[in-house]
Specification:
globular; 10 strands; 257 residues; two-stranded parallel sheet; single chain; Rossmann fold; alpha/beta; 11 helices
Length: 257
Amino acid sequence: MTLLYAVTGIALYYLQDYILFQPIPLEKNKKYDFAYPHKDINIPYNKEINLNIIQFRTKDSVPKGVVLYFHGNRKNISWYAKYATGFTDKNYEVWMIDYPGFGKSTGKFTEQQLYDLALQLYKLARTKFDPAKIIIYGKSMGTGIASQLASIRDSKYLILETPYYSMTSLVSHYFPVYPVERMIHYHFPTWQFLQKVTAPVIIFHGTDDGVVPLSNAEQLKSVLKKNDEFVVISNGSHNDLDDFPLFHKKLDSLLSL
């Protein structure tokens, strides 16, 4: 039993990147064939990092605003592009970035690097949009990144889909017998960031989420402001909230304001 505990702990420490993240890299010259208007941008952030951004455009030449969309831990932008129409149909552009190692983005993947790149996306958006027209959106893993950005920059809303209290608390849920706080390289303390967010916060979470348990996300209620919202979707799991009318009804009402 002691040997099993040690071997599992060693595997968790050294293989944590493979456990937590499942990126699919792409060649820089890869052409996306999305069926909706978009612009593919590559920004040489430094000698090591190429930041790939896909800007999904609206049919109207004058968009209402922009959604800075921070996706989850899987594949690349192509996996999440289908969600863009929920915003572009409401006349909001959607700007998605791929993290280092995901899609056409390159460089070293670290928690601080993710925060730095998110800030660069915000600065790029500010060349075109006022803060009151910028929505910061995080899905799954991206909720920690989105929350950190919203804690240091103004926005119209911070919207979180299937967030976690912190990455350490989430990993501890699956490995309760290990000192996770000292073992993993990624903390993403969403609860700390939310305490500094001045924009309205709207959280969506399903009752049947098998990746981030609802009980983990509900701990965030303790740091929400009086008028923030926590929307619970009955029978919703981790990747299907987009299939529920309640999700769209609430999201559409936010985008119509």
